[in-house]
Please model this.
Amino acid sequence: MTFSPVTVEGIVFLVGEITILILLGFFFFSLLLVGISILSISSGKLYFPRFLKAGMVLVEGFAKALFRLFGIEDSEILTFFIKLHNTMNKKSFAEIPVRERAIFFPQCLRSARCPAHLSPEGLACRNCGSCSIGFWNRVLSRMGYRVFIVPGSSFIKRMVRAYHPRAIIGVGCLSEVKDGLEMADKIGLVSMGVVTQKDGCVETSVDWDKVMEVATLGVDPATIPPEAMDAVFFSPPLQEQGREGENHE
Model:
């Protein structure tokens, strides 16, 4: 039996064929991920979240290019990624005791008249009643959360190193939340994100119902302050929230 000698040209040709097959596989895999993602975005329901989460880690950059090719806005892509991340982390987050959780609010949620000063741990809320942060700060603190109002991601890293929470909630604009969730993944924290209702640097707003929906995951209802439930279901005016919080101090 004789064997044909292996030539350099034959090796190059074989490597080329394998490379083309890998690239085609990569393309169709990305296309499948993007197709499932677009279906999830349009229906408002996540399909195959574990498959999407694992796949996006491998092909995120190329997938984003395909999203844009199909006319999907960057904001929709980020929203989808955050929703996917929250869905995957929901069970793990709920299993972590509240005393081992922290929540980070952006300073842009405060009133333009806020008298709070920056401290080594972020803004020290003075519960002045001019914005809703004071009220919810008290509610979440009574539940057992460490609450921080921070001007940037450097504060988040510092507080994580100082207090070692096992789980965090990050509130902010789309890009800030996305970056924060990725940072948490890298350092092994279970994280959940809540996006503000509008972008900006001053007097932004957040849906507190969504914040509490996340914050109360796995929490015994008996430990949730009654005024928090009233505020969520009946949405009292801002001034009432401030006065109500003061009455429970």
